[in-house]
Amino acid sequence: MSSGARPVSSPQLNELLGKALLDEQLRDRLFTDPEAVAREFNLTEPEREAIKRLDRQKFAQALDRLRWG
Fold it and tell me: Residue 41: which of 7, 6, 8, 5 has the closest Cα?
C-alpha cells in the first residue's frame, strides 16, 4: 500500500464500527474473533485486514472521547 492510499471504508465497515461503539459484546468479539465478525458484516478482504489491525486500547480511548467529549 502506498503512503498516499486512502483508508478502507464501506457501508458495512462503517456499520460494524458504529455498532461496536454502542454494543460492548460486539466490541469484545471484534477484538477476540475479528474474522467471524468480518464474515457477519460481509467485509472485503482489505476491510478484514483493517479490523485485525485495530488496537483495542486506542479504540477504547476513542470511545471515551466520544462519551465524555
Answer: 8
Please state the pTM of the whole predicted model. 0.81
Q: Mind listing the pLDDT tens digit for each residue in 36-59?
A: 999 999 999 999 999 999 999 999
Provide the phi-psi class of 65: left if phi over 0, else alpha when psi is between -120 and 50, else beta.
alpha
- DSSP secondary structure, 8-58, as one string: P--HHHHHHHHHHHH-HHHHHHHHH-HHHHHHHTT--HHHHHHHHT--HHH
Query: Cell 465524555 appears where?
Result: 68
